[in-house]
Design a protein that fits this description.
This protein has ten helices and no strands. It is an all-alpha fold. It has a domain of about 130 residues: Tetracycline Repressor, domain 2. Helix 1 packs across helix 2, helix 1 packs across helix 6 and helix 7 packs across helix 8. The longest helix is centred in the first third of the chain and has 26 residues. The termini are far apart. The C terminus is likely disordered.
Length: about 200
C-alpha cells in the first residue's frame, strides 16, 4: 500500500499531466481548477492543496513538458559527435507536428511566459542550458567561444520559430528547409552539403 507521501506525489503527478493535456487541448487561459481536477480524477480541493493557484499548476505542468523535451535533446546533443548532431537537430525540428501535445504546450508556454514572471525566469534557465549544450558542441567542432554562444542562440531561436511557424502555416510544414538549416547550423570543419533529407 502506498504511503501518504507516495499518494500525494501520485496525485501531484496526475494533476501535472492533466494540466499539460488541457493546455494543449484548450489553451492556457481556458484551464480551470475544476477542469484539471476532473481530468486528473481528484477532488478540486486537492489542486489548491498541491499548488498555490491554478496558474502555478499550469506553470509547473508546462515547465515539466518543456524540461523533458529539452532534456532529451540536450542529452542527445552532448552524446553525439560531429555531423550527427546536425541530423539530430533537423530531425527534431521536423518531428513537432501542429497537433502534437508537446508542440502546443510549447507554443502556449512561450506566450504565457510574457505574462508570468516565474514562468519566464524558469523557462530562461531551460533555454540557457540548451544553449550551453549546443555551444559546447560547437566549440568541439572548432568554433570560437563567443561565436559558439551566439551561434547556439541563433540556432535555438531558428528551431523554436520553425516549430511555431509549422503550427500556423501549412506551407511552412511543406518547405524543404533541410539545406538552409544545414547552412545555418554547420560549424567550422563540417560541410553543410551532406546528404539532405526533406523534413516531414
Amino acid at each position: 500500500m502506498a504511503t501518504a507521501v507516495e499518494q500525494g506525489d501520485q496525485t501531484r503527478t496526475r494533476l501535472l499531466r492533466a494540466a499539460a493535456e488541457l493546455i494543449a487541448e484548450r489553451g492556457w487561459g481556458s484551464v480551470t481548477t475544476r477542469l484539471a481536477a476532473d481530468r486528473a480524477g481528484v477532488r478540486p480541493g486537492l489542486v489548491h492543496y498541491h499548488f498555490r493557484s491554478v496558474t502555478d499548476l499550469l506553470i509547473d505542468a508546462a515547465l515539466r513538458v518543456v524540461r523533458e523535451e529539452a532534456g532529451r535533446l540536450t542529452a542527445a546533443v552532448t552524446a553525439m559527435p560531429g555531423e550527427q548532431v546536425l541530423d539530430l537537430l533537423l530531425e527534431a525540428a521536423g518531428s513537432y507536428e501542429p497537433e502534437d501535445a508537446a508542440t502546443l504546450v510549447f507554443a502556449e508556454t512561450m506566450l504565457a511566459a510574457t505574462r508570468h514572471e516565474r514562468l519566464r525566469s524558469e523557462l530562461a534557465v531551460v533555454l540557457r542550458e540548451c544553449r550551453e549544450a549546443l555551444a559546447q558542441w560547437l566549440r568541439g567542432q572548432g568554433a570560437a567561444d563567443d561565436d559558439a554562444v551566439a551561434s547556439a542562440a541563433v540556432l535555438l531561436a531558428a528551431f523554436d520559430g520553425l516549430v511555431l511557424h509549422r503550427i500556423i502555416d501549412e506551407q511552412a510544414r511543406a518547405m524543404p528547409i533541410d539545406s538552409p538549416l544545414r547552412r545555418l547550423a554547420a560549424p567550422p570543419g563540417i560541410s553543410p552539403s551532406s546528404a539532405e533529407r526533406k523534413l516531414r
